[in-house]
What we know:
The chain is mainly α. Helices cover 81% and strands 0% of the residues. The chain has 5 helices and no strands. Helix 2 (33-56) crosses helix 5 (134-161) and helix 3 runs antiparallel to helix 4 (99-126). The longest helix is centred in the C-terminal third of the chain and has 28 residues, at 99-126. The model has no long low-confidence stretch (mean pLDDT 90).
Amino acid sequence: xxxxxxxxxxxxxxxxxxxxxxxxxxxxxxxxxxxxxxxxxxxxxxxxxxxxxxxxxxxxxxxxxxxxxxxxxxxxxxxxxxxxxxxxxxxxxxxxxxxxxxxxxxxxxxxxxxxxxxxxxxxxxxxxxxxxxxxxxxxxxxxxxxxxxxxxxxxxxxxxxx
Length: 162
């Protein structure tokens, strides 16, 4: 029987710790299972899609780019939380709005600010591709693709889940 490498065990312990921390934090902030599950599912979908993309293209993850998943989860979580907060704000201010109107208005109000945030972050990571260091270039491309996926999934999965 082959022993499990230390770094795989450390990764899973780190992942479980981060996951538990995020669930606890979202639970305290939103005090609703619904508003914990939606952002976490969106983060999982983005993470799995990005890891699958990297695996499909046989793109190696280096020491430099190994933290891309953490950054990607933070960005995805922030986009989804913006949508949740706007949705809850609209619901609190006008109880006469239907579910469809609440979702449509939330997405409409938050798309451009989140789009600009994502684009400026993408530009920052794209600037890494002018480096002469291959792992830095790869990290820039990974984050550029990942943030694009994050923006797309946040604004398609949130309406679907709600």
